[in-house]
Amino acid sequence: MSSKKEDWRKWLKFSCTACGNCCKGTIVLITDGDVRRIMDGTGLPARQIVRFFSNVEMPKRDSLWIKMGKGDKRVAMGLKWNESPRRCKFLGDDDMCQIYEHRPVTCRSHPFEIKTDDNWAVTKLGISDVVDCPHEWDGTHKIRELKATERWNCNQVEAFEVKVKAWNRKRNIKRTPDEFLRFVELA
Q: What is the DSSP letter of 94?
């Protein structure tokens, strides 16, 4: 067995302690597919799920930037959050996700960072350090399931990128959040 696989096995033992830290102070970028799933599962309209953020740390040319307003203003679509304390709107007082069955795909794959090649073979597996995480090491994750979630996320993001690109190319339109949600058929 190669040392690379042994390293992977270490990460597969990750176990969430349900502290909620990953839902506090972080911006969770979402796609129209995520929003649709949350809408279907909760009955909430898109405007109660989505917030448009301009303060996201992404490369300037990232394909998820959405042109909004006038000029060069760009925003990214994320889960709505509460300001005080700064946390996901759907994180309950008990630090448990209130939309767990309908949560965004990126939340489903967190905290794993998985890289695959063109044939979906895993080339790298690690744990995100985006937030402090008091995890345990008694989990039982399967690479097959992580790969399936990664594929789901990649497919969903690619489909959303096509829509964002089409929106960004449109001329003579009102570049407002409501118009964008209508454009991607969420309003």
A: T
